[in-house]
Specification:
By secondary structure, the chain is an all-alpha fold. The chain has one domain. The chain is about 70% helix and about 0% strand. The relative contact order is 0.20.
């Protein structure tokens, strides 16, 4: 069920705006995930099991290159894009 209200709509819009922001997709993904976690913790949006799984997958993808001691790379960026699009769709249910 979608969380109603202007705060929930603003949180969804802020997440989606961060996806379109200029800059490196991995850094944008980190910022978007942090904003989303803040909204979820504040109760502005409702957690769903799927959303929790996607956020966990995103965290793994974002840490993949840095754990290997590499610069932010294409693998993390492509995985982040894919997962962020899925999160954006799932936000309609959060």
């Amino acid at each position: 069920m979608t969380t109603p209200g202007p705060a929930a709509e603003a949180a969804r819009a802020a997440f989606r705006a961060q996806l379109e922001a200029k800059g490196h997709v991995v850094e944008n993904a980190r910022a978007a995930a942090a904003e989303l976690e803040t909204a979820l913790a504040a109760g502005v949006l409702s957690r769903t099991p799927a959303l929790d799984r996607m956020l966990a997958d995103l965290a793994v993808a974002l840490d993949a290159d840095t754990d290997a001691g590499e610069k932010l790379g294409a693998k993390s960026a492509e995985a982040a894009r894919f997962i962020l699009r899925a999160i954006s769709r799932e936000l309609d249910q959060a």
